[in-house]
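Reopening this one. Same input as before:
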Amino acid sequence: LPSGDAPSGGELPELAEFFFPDNLQHDPERLRGKKLSPEGAREALGAALEGLEGLKDFDAVSLEGLLRPMSEELGLKTGEFFGLLRVATTDRTVAPPLFQTMEVLGRDRCLGRLRAALAQLG
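Same output, byte for byte:
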């Protein structure tokens, strides 16, 4: 949404619907975005999944503290890496802030969605 534009009551359910499904069907092309290869996307998701499984606190600050440096370690721009994670966790290219969204979704739902996205990448 453009800055300052609040969703109307009719738009809100559509904007928030990704919070509720247990399973998402990911489009592999959308997961990878424009620049990631299938191998690069699998490597990045695998690294994120491994790091998140060992994360003690699953809050926005801890998530950012883990994932921001991980993008550099993987040799990815944060936009590429965070875009991959956003699509894997929400099945959307545009969503509320990533780390806060992941915190609200919770550890189990996020990890399940990341595993499903990794499987759907083949």
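So the earlier flakiness isn't reproducible anymore. For the record, The CA atoms of residues 99 and 109 lie 14 Å apart.
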